[in-house]
Amino acid sequence: MASSTKVDIEVDSQADSWFAKLGPGLITGAADDDPSGIATYSQAGAQFGFNMLWTVLLTYPLMVAIQVVSARIGRVSGHGLATNLRRHYPRWLLYGTVVLLLVANTINIAADLTAMGAAVNLLIGGPTRAYTVGLGVLSLALQVFVPYRGYVRVLKWLTLALFAYVGVIFAVQIPWTTVALRTVLPHGSWSAGYITTVVAVFGTTISPYLFFWQASQEVEELHAKKGQQALTKMPSQGPANLSRIRLDTSIGMAFSNLVAFFIMLTTAVTLHAHHITDIQTSAQAASALKPIAGQFAFLLFSLGIIGTGLLALPVLAGSAAYAMAGTFRWKNSLALEPQLAKRFYGIIVLATIVGLALDFTSIDPIRALFWSAVINGVTAVPIMVLMMLMASNPKVMGTFVTPMPLRMLGWLSTGVMAAAVIAMFVFI
């Protein structure tokens, strides 16, 4: 009995140790599938069926590369992206980037809160706007009042909400042979609608707020763990930490892209197959699923919207706060008490409140989300260029400059995003 207990303890310890290695990358990847992203993936599947699934195969390695680069910058330098931009590049470039990020994130917060409130309404009825406000307040309370280590655990467990979209496939019949064939050999087109949707998928998947969040979370982890220092000051900690970053980011982005794949797949075999091809919001997608795929699929899809929204809101508001704090040298950490980092927490509160306020104006949230995607796409390219330059700069990275394979993949990701932005302006 004693031997068995010892084995159980060792297994549990190994599992805890493995799970402990997952953090910034896992949360970042999961937050990418926010309600507005769910709407984009749902529209892709509803409009084009299986012929949009290939995008996930392409975005995964590109997303891993650029997120590993952002994480390395944070862990090696000990500073977030905005601080490194301020220290090494012209101020006008920094200010322009941060302003665009704030605008895009605030609009995204508004769209996500609207979708979450609508999802609650679908499940239990009642006042959608009251639910929207309640969820916004709940998210703020968690960010401001829950200590960092506890809050990170909450976010890590919230990533399980994404399994709702994997579970949906058990409620519908999937022609797996056709799926595999169309994923590898899609029937694409050069129509404006198809190109626009491809651009939207890329813009939703590779977003600037994810870069700022993951770099800053690496800095948070650095300060939270005793004995850890920036790798430029303590190179001996490099191998273990860079290995952890690769594992964490690869799993997080796999999670993100797998869920995107299943959302497209679910809407393809249900909505597209029944000629429902115009999906504007994630709540609309959930509602449309009910008469086709049944109550179980509807419940999973709706609950997933709420769970992923609660995961994405702090990433959107937090990345804006980290960017502003790095720009103006404010104290910034979710580990600090609010009274010790008033301006940092003030940005989190302000971004959420302004996002909520937008939901009570005459602004069309769908049009606002479109322009948010445009701003995200336009902003992502110069930020990615600057990140790649920083990652190869010994003044930023010391002896940990980006290795050539990662550098090539990172530049490829940047080039693809640049092509997507050009296509957006040509076809939209």
Automatic annotation (TrEMBL):
The chain crosses the membrane at residues 52-71, 92-110, 130-148, 155-174, 194-213, 254-276, 296-323, 369-389, 409-427. It comes from the Bacteria. InterPro entries: NRAMP_fam (IPR001046). Its main location: membrane. It is found in: Membrane. It holds the Pfam family Nramp. Keywords: Membrane, Symport, Transmembrane, Transmembrane helix, Transport. It is a multi-pass membrane protein. PANTHER family: NATURAL RESISTANCE-ASSOCIATED MACROPHAGE PROTEIN 2 (PTHR11706:SF33), SOLUTE CARRIER PROTEIN FAMILY 11 MEMBER (PTHR11706). This is Natural resistance-associated macrophage protein. It comes from Paraburkholderia hospita. The lineage of its organism: Bacteria, Pseudomonadati, Pseudomonadota, Betaproteobacteria, Burkholderiales.
